[in-house]
Design brief:
By secondary structure, the protein is an alpha+beta fold. The protein has five helices and 15 strands. The strands form four sheets. It has a five-stranded antiparallel beta sheet with strand order 3-4-15-10-12, with no helix packed on it. A four-stranded antiparallel beta sheet has the order 7-8-13-11. A three-stranded antiparallel beta sheet has the order 1-2-9, with no helix packed on it.
């Protein structure tokens, strides 16, 4: 499956495939990596936009969240997985021999955390992900925890140079509340999030707070607060349209 992002003048292709060949079949497209927008949290959709004094709204009015929640791709869990840990005993179970899990011993990660975090978590699992991904030269992928789905477990965030390393095996940090209990991650669960970015160098520049900056801030404020709704989104579309025309 090939998908595109940054739909500007030059589209950049991101290639996905599975080494479990049956997963490449179109009839199983619901188990493929999908645009993050398809996993938009249901609780967020139900929020009613409201504005209080001086036009201050709730989370539904803030453009930060929907813009973030629609970036990149989410890999849904490809099969039901049961994970169990008690002291030195650990085991996992899946319905198919095609899918496996491994573990990271405490000395690989957990024992190096601050003392409080060592008390909060019990184990780090490693999913043997059947999906591979390739980005063009110079592009990497952020691996992100799907925070706003509020799972009991946590995907450890990181960055992968997917222009030459195509394997994405997720590290899953499990809280101590699951000691002696089975953690079930069901098929289809929004599991791990991948956001592409172009590797480049940045340099910080500290500038004076002068009349030009004051005018820029004022224009930025008026851009939002001269419309009752969707001002940020409207401006973003204008900028995207201008970029395409360049």
């Amino acid at each position: 499956m090939i998908s595109n992002f940054f739909k500007r003048n030059d589209e950049v292709e991101v290639e996905w495939w599975s080494d479990v060949d049956a997963l490449n079949d179109p009839s199983l497209d619901f188990l493929r990596p999908q645009k993050a927008s398809k996993f938009f949290p249901e609780w967020f959709k139900k929020v009613q936009a409201t504005k209080e004094n001086r036009g201050v709204g709730n989370i539904k009015n803030c453009p930060v969240f929907p813009e973030y929640l629609t970036q990149g791709w989410i890999i849904p869990m490809w099969c039901d997985s049961e994970l169990f840990v008690k002291d030195d005993e650990w085991n996992w179970k899946t319905p198919s021999d095609a899918f496996r899990w491994e573990m990271h011993s405490p000395n690989q990660f957990l024992h190096w955390l601050p003392e409080q975090q060592q008390k909060d978590y019990i184990w780090t699992w490693k999913a043997k992900c059947p999906w591979k991904v390739k980005t063009p030269k110079g592009y990497s992928m952020y691996q992100v925890n799907p925070f706003y789905h509020f799972h009991d477990w946590t995907i450890l965030p990181g960055s992968i140079r997917t222009d030459f390393h195509f394997e994405v095996n997720q590290q899953v940090l499990v809280p101590k509340s699951y000691k002696g209990k089975t953690l079930l991650i069901e098929r289809g669960t929004p599991f791990a999030w991948y956001i592409p970015y172009k590797r480049t160098k940045y340099k910080e520049i500290f500038v004076p707070y002068d009349e030009e900056r004051k005018r820029m801030e004022g224009a930025s404020w008026l851009n939002i607060f001269t419309s009752f709704k969707n001002a940020y989104k409207t401006r973003a579309k204008m900028e995207d349209r201008n970029d395409k025309e360049k």
